[in-house]
Design brief:
Two copies of one chain form a homodimer. By secondary structure, the first copy, chain A, is α/β, with parallel strands linked by helices. The first copy, chain A, has two domains: about 5-175, Rossmann fold (3-Layer(aba) Sandwich); about 185-280, Pantoate-beta-alanine ligase, C-terminal domain (Pantoate--beta-alanine Ligase, Chain: A,domain 2, 2-Layer Sandwich), CATH 3.30.1300. The first copy, chain A, has nine helices and ten strands. Chain A has helices at about 10-20, 35-50, 75-85, 115-120, 125-140, 150-165, 195-200, 200-215, 220-230, and strands at about 5, 25-30, 50-55, 90-95, 105-110, 145, 170-175, 235-245, 260-270, 270-280. Chain A has a six-stranded parallel sheet, sandwiched between helices. In chain A, strands 8-9-10 form a three-stranded antiparallel sheet. In chain A, strand 3, helix 3 (about 75-85) and strand 4 (about 90-95) form a beta-alpha-beta unit. Chain A starts with a strand and ends with a strand. The relative contact order of chain A is 0.13. Chains A and B meet through helix 1, strand 5, helix 5 and helix 6 of A and helix 1, strand 5, helix 5 and helix 6 of B. Strand 5 of chain A pairs antiparallel with strand 5 of chain B, so a sheet runs across the interface.
């Protein structure tokens, strides 16, 4: 079946209902376009696990704050389309907009949206949760695929689907990295060659943390301080946060214990990057 | 087909997908049970307009405030079931609960939830919008039927479906009244015989307003004052509000113009009742 490009929510809902009528399970990969190998891995996994696969490409304005990169966010539809086709998608949902003239109702993510990335990006997760609710309502997938790179986003969406009974399985997928370890991101293309090298410090700090934790270190403040030093060595890197938190509640930990998320956000030049690692059942 | 009673969101979603696979359109009537002729009219209309009809019966805790009548709200499942069957429903969705242990994500209705009933019931419309989002996600109807008696609720839900792309048509249905004019409500059964008589003043005030508007009156304060006098004549009636507002924004009007909602809420004894009327294209 040729790849379809669907432009309106009504047409996408119609296609989804047709797939359901045909007895097909539906896999869904929501993206903002500017697709890279991370996205491709999600589409390929969706392809393996479902009868029909939809990819959405929509740069969602409500998850960008004032002064963020909404207008300059990369739009590369023609390349995205080829990648979707090669990865086996059946449909691209690429609406011009998902918002009416005067939207008044949003999804409130509560305290989950106030910590980590939410500290420096107020309203970001409200925008994410709202657009994901819309997309899941329109596409009505059996499974939706999200990368673990956006760890807080993944947590918010898992909670969202549970709390609003959105009726699909959220499938978390591994971070895909460049050969030198940099986590794939649509924003990596903003980096100058010098910034690109410096950006490796995020992964370096996380690797350092993994080594220390494997050796028995549990003191969060000590780890945070040492990771911060690694970032501070790079002249164009400005740390936003290093967080060692409970992987479910995102509450700061003094000592690492149980399921732990270690997340970093930093500006490399003017480009904000994130990366993370996690530990299970630490004692 | 015999009436099915479905107890879990997973089973209801399964049934809804089965209906869709069978090519059936789905009509949905969400209720809190304690069904009366108003609800029955919604079910009968859904029956006429759809291939499959689901009625939900769930007293939603998040739309009740502290001190409100959640615990004493009438639960009359056996009678409700008979009424659903007689009206031609295919399924009753009657979950024990729709909330997990620690819900963290809700639907925020913004300023629409702060006026009229929202003034004396803070959080009420947030609870309504959240549960309706859940129910629509689980039942996935083509059409959902709501009575106009809950005018603000209807407006919130119309906006909700638009703003979150919930993909169903909201069908507003006329208020059903007792022979003497009292709007049907599950809460009417709380009224003592004397309160029952006094409760007619809501309808009397609205009728008065209709007569005056037909005669050309447009001064909202004047109408409000005269309607309040009608309520004040009853010893056990305590006015909550009389609102003459824009039917779309719910903003107070000084002069009636365009589409106008006139809504009343009052306590009759300890029972809170609402009623309303509306005007189109007033000039």
């Amino acid at each position: 079946m040729a790849l379809q490009v669907v432009k309106t929510p009504a047409d996408m809902l119609k296609l989804s209902k047709q797939w359901t009528r045909d007895g097909k399970s539906i896999g869904f990969v929501p993206t903002m376009g500017a697709l890279h190998a991370g996205h491709v891995s999600l589409i390929e996994r969706a392809r393996k696990e479902n009868d029909a696969v939809a990819v959405s490409i929509y740069v969602n304005p409500t998850q960008f704050g004032p002064g963020e990169d909404f207008s300059k966010y990369p739009r590369t539809f023609d390349e995205d389309r080829k990648l979707c086709e090669a990865a086996g998608a059946d449909a691209i949902f690429a609406p011009d907009t998902l918002y009416g003239k005067d939207p008044r109702i949003f999804v409130d993510v509560g305290e989950l949206g106030d910590v980590l990335c939410g500290m420096s990006r107020p309203g970001h997760f409200r925008g994410v949760a709202t657009v994901v609710t819309k997309l899941l309502s329109i596409v009505r997938p059996d499974r939706a695929y999200f990368g673990k790179k956006d760890a807080q986003q993944l947590l918010v969406i898992e909670q969202l689907v549970k709390d609003l009974d959105l009726g699909c399985e959220i499938v978390p997928c591994p971070i895909v990295r460049e050969p030198d370890g940099l986590a794939m991101s649509s924003r990596n293309r903003y980096l100058s060659p010098s910034e690109r090298k410096q950006a490796l410090c995020l992964q370096k700090a996380l690797k350092y943390c993994e080594t220390k934790v494997a050796a028995g270190e549990r003191d969060a403040m000590k780890l945070m301080g040492e990771m911060a030093e690694i970032l501070q060595k790079e002249p164009d890197v400005e740390m936003d946060y290093i967080a060692l938190v409970d992987a479910h509640t995102l509450v700061d930990l003094k000592r690492l214990r149980g399921n732990v998320l270690v997340a970093i956000a930093a500006k490399v030049g003017s480009t904000r990057l994130i990366d993370n690692t996690s530990f299970k059942n630490l004692s």
